[in-house]
Amino acid sequence: MTDHSRSPSTLALKQTHFPSTTNQATMIMNTFARTAARRVVTNASRRAASTLRQGEQEARRVLPLMAAATTVGGLGYMALNQQDNKAQCLSNNTAEEVEDKFATYWPRNIMILFGPPGAGKGTHGPKIEDMLGIPQLSTGDMLRAAVAAKTEVGLKAAAVMKAGGLVSDDIVIGIIRDRISEPDCKFGFILDGFPRTLVQAKELDKMLSEEGACVTKVVELQVPDEVLEERICGRWIHKKSGRSYHVKYAPPKSMKKDGEGNPIPESMTDDETGEALMQRPDDTASALVKRLAGYHGETVPILKHYAPGGIVSEVNANQGMDGVWGEVLSALKRGGN
After folding, report:
1. Burial, 321: exposed, middle or buried (Cβ in 10 Å; 0-12, 13-18, 19+)?
2. pTM of the model
3. Which residues are catalytically annotated?
4. pLDDT digits (tens, 9 = 90+) for 243-294
């Protein structure tokens, strides 16, 4: 019987080293791990490459839009920035420039407000003044101011009045010339109480023409003579401001009446200052007759003088205040009648 355990092949087999079971498991796991890792890396690389290709394609599609948007946005920003800068320049500079240009190149709004005593010039004149932003100029106020300021023309007027004479038309025109050269008159003014005669109207036209200006609007407040007596005899005024009140139509808040329904003089005070009101010496029935005769005889011809220029407007002042004011507004509009 042959002993195979001692054969060379057997001995060689025994002498060959085989790893243990644990080592074999480790080797297998390592091999699997490396293989899996290679697969993961390969797949990840493929996905990354695919993603990159997709990203490039998306970038090629989006970038032009982004560039366009950036360009438009930049242009829009620039435009808005320019508009903001322009608006800032306008807000800082243009207001005064426009005012200066308007005052220099556009005709001034030169108005004459006519009406018989008690027609409502003292009521509606200040409202026109506030609305248009131009001063209402009374010859009496201008004369007193010139005398107080001791201007050249004012000194002449003071000398005449001290001697008991009447101030000439030349002096009055000079006072008006000085007054309308002041800054508040650069856009225009409203004349109240002048001109009173046709001669004065022509002198006014001459004076205005020397500076390239002219009367642009004449408004007459019309009231029948028979209605004026009640208005005139019930009128009280605040001398300093010229504010006008009426015992029936516009009484002061302080007014009290006696047993016969007549106002108590001591109770007639100005609403704003509390100062005493007064009645003009010529606000009587007998004086009114003469005043109306003078108005119709001398003032009305002035309306005919300006009528051919299409600048005269007539307002029915014998109605409620809202109605009168509505007609005044219509008359003030360009081309209004």
Report:
1. middle
2. 0.61
3. 121, 196, 235, 280, 291
4. 889 998 889 999 999 998 889 999 999 999 999 999 988 888 888 888 899 8
